[in-house]
Each structure stands twice: as C-alpha cells, then as structure tokens.
Design a protein that fits this description.
The chain has one domain: Four Helix Bundle (Hemerythrin (Met), subunit A). A two-stranded antiparallel sheet has the order 1-2. The longest helix has 43 residues. It has 8 helices and 2 strands; from the N terminus they run H-H-H-H-E-H-H-E-H-H. The protein has 257 residues and is mainly α.
C-alpha cells in the first residue's frame, strides 16, 4: 500500500518576510533589555509592517500555506506578544512589582490565546472582520505610545496606573468578541477609485511629516474603533429602521389621487 508523500517545500518570499518580522521582534527584546527603548519600539513597528506585507504578498502570489500560517503565528507571538510585554515592563511597569509583571504577562498570554483562536477559526470566519483586537495592533499601540513619549516615564503612581490599565485593556480586547475590520478586501489585485490612491498619498505624507503623532493616533483609533462601532452600529441600525418605518407610514397615509 503506497503512502502519500508530503511535499517538503515552502514558499520563499512570504516566509522570508515572516522571518524578518521574527528578527525585528527579537531585536526589540534585546534593545529593551539594553534600555534602548526607542529602538525597541521602532523594531516593533517594523515587525508590524513586515507582518502586513507577508500576508498581502502570500495572497497576491497565491502562495498561502498551512506552514506559512503556523510560522507567522509563532513569529507573531514573539514579536507582538513577548516583544511589547518586555518593552512595556522595562519601560514603565517594573517599579510596580506584581501588578506590573502581571500586566505584562497578560499581554503575552492573551496574545497567545488570540492567535490560537484565530488559527482555529481561520477557515470559517468572515474575512472582513477580526474577532478580538489583532495582536499586531495591540503591539503597535504599546510601541507608538513609547515613541510618542520618547523617554522613559517618570515613575509616579497616577502615571504608572495609566500604563498598567493600558496593558490590561489591550489584553482584554485581544480575547474579547469585539469585531475589528480586517481591511482584507483592500486587495492589491482589485480595482479602487482614484480617491483611494489620493488618500493613501496624503496619509503617507502626514506620516512622514509627524511620524510619532500620526502612528500613535492611527493605533489608538484602530484599538478604539471596535468598541465604538460595536456600540454605535445597533443605534445606527435602529435609527435607520425608525426612519424607514416613518417613511412607509407616511407613504401609506398619503391619499390616492
């Protein structure tokens, strides 16, 4: 009886980008340990960019594979789980003892749970949405906060509590059922209106002009977009249904000519 042979081949380009993501995440940990916090934060942002492009290129070239997905998840856990957790702990959370390291640990633990859930639901979930905050977005929020403030925080009780709460919030959102837009429908093969290109050019210009503020704002807006949309969407649907019902009622009351 012939056994089925398994192909021992992998796609080079997307997996090289994933390896770059892994390298950037590892460097971020090394830089954080050496108290080079700004370099560590930049490395995490770079890891996020590489993570975006490895998936885009894999889909564009038709080179998606199970191996690539598992490799990407392992790289993401280091780059966007352990990386920001170590960075935030050494930058702001260490003086707060148990509360600090527990907050950092939750980022790693909830990030791992988020990735495991994503892998399990990958074949059945709606491509337009992520269930729970994506782990790269949580990492970007932490990294851009450090880039915005530039220097380590002056450790006083109120300010430290803010960063502990930020870590808890990011951890909770990753394992929540809050839906976030994936933007996977913005494929490179698809046609888009000219205004889309103009908007992208303006966005890149703003990032180049004020990278710290712009990247921080984008990260925070995306993190908050899920809960805000979850609250507003039912209200908007209810309002639209009420308007539609009112129009139908007026149309039924209109006398026939």
């Amino acid at each position: 009886m012939k056994t089925k042979q398994v192909k021992k081949t992998v796609y080079i380009l997307p997996n090289l980008l994933t390896a770059g993501n892994l390298c950037a995440g590892f460097y971020a940990i090394i830089a954080a340990v050496n108290h080079e916090f700004e370099r560590a934060a930049v490395a995490l942002v770079l890891a996020g960019i590489l993570d975006i492009f490895d998936g885009k290129i894999a889909r564009f070239t038709g080179s998606s594979s199970r191996f690539g997905m598992e490799f990407d998840s392992l790289a993401d856990l280091l780059s966007f789980g352990a990386g920001p957790a170590v960075l935030m702990y050494l930058w702001a959370l260490q003086p707060y003892g148990r509360a600090g390291w527990v907050a950092a640990f939750l980022i790693v633990a909830c990030g791992a749970l988020r990735l495991a859930r994503f892998n399990v639901q990958a074949d059945t979930s709606d491509r337009k949405w992520f269930i729970g905050l994506p782990i790269p977005a949580a990492s970007a929020c932490a990294a851009t906060t450090i880039l915005l403030l530039k220097t380590p925080v002056v450790f006083d009780r109120p300010l430290g509590i803010v960063f502990i709460l930020q870590a808890y919030l990011l951890a909770f959102l990753m394992v929540s059922t809050v839906r976030y837009r994936s933007f996977k429908e913005l494929g490179m093969r698809q046609k888009h209106p000219f205004s889309f290109l103009v908007s992208a050019v303006f966005l890149f210009s703003i990032i180049a002009l004020r990278p710290r503020i712009t990247l921080f704002t984008m990260a925070v807006v995306y993190v908050l977009s899920g809960p805000v949309e979850m609250v507003l969407a039912p209200l908007l649907r209810k309002g639209l249904l009420a308007v539609s019902g009112e129009k139908r009622r007026k149309a039924n009351q209109r006398p026939l000519s």
